[in-house]
Here is the input.
Amino acid sequence: MSTLDAAWSLADAWPVAASSIGVVHSGGVETHGDMQRRQRLASVSKPLSAYAVLVAIEEGSVHLDDAVGQTGCTVQHLLAHAGGYAFEGANPVGKPGVKRIYSNTGFDMLAQHVEHSTGIAFVEYLDDAVFAPLGMHNTALEGSCAKDVHSTAEDLLQFVHELRSPSLIAHETYMSAVMPVFPDLAGVVPGIGSFDPCPWGLGFEIRGQKSPHWTGTRNSSSTFGHFGGIGTFMWIDPVADVACVMIAEREFDEWGMQYWPAFNDEVLHCLGR
Here is the structure.
């Protein structure tokens, strides 16, 4: 018997071929499914890549106020999807700091900036700075840092442990990443909806008061994480002291918003949150 049996039952009813889920809470770690099944993470790649940028900032190779891209755009803007760049495409579609425009392009620009600043290919830097020290041995970047990290739920749990008790970066740097940056900006969470404000940290989406949302109604406004269009998510709720990772064999579409919030609520309910 598991504390989370009711939540696992909900997951078993999902219209997917397979799912791998891990939950971390004060009582330990509970898992469901094949935790070593490996697949692309899609946009859950972004928090991992952002964490490498934060390590580079701590090392002094990169700075939040470094200019990158169009006039007025900085590393901080790009990490927070406030650089004025579209989802894809090299040309800016707005001015920095005006609107939350979710952008894969911005993250690719960050990778190039880290490479230029450190002299190390970003694929190597990400592995050396994040994957290797956390023991994420089945995780690798195989393309764009915005969407092409391949990993397992087991490895993602190692990242979650880091996010619950950071060791690779200072506490101050960590807090700056998981709190809203440019907090008043309106914007869109792709596949979910438009929000005003649309809070985001440095590479991490912040739940805030967004409704509807892919996390649950029981999740606190301080919950941070990310979901991926290929059917993946990761969230950490510092108020509930609970975190969850999930990798499914089905791309995010209507099924995600139909099933994920109820599952996340059940996880928190089972744990008395």
The first helix runs from residue 5 to 12. The two ends are 19 Å apart (CA to CA). Residues 5-270 form a domain with the Beta-lactamase fold (CATH 3.40.710.10).
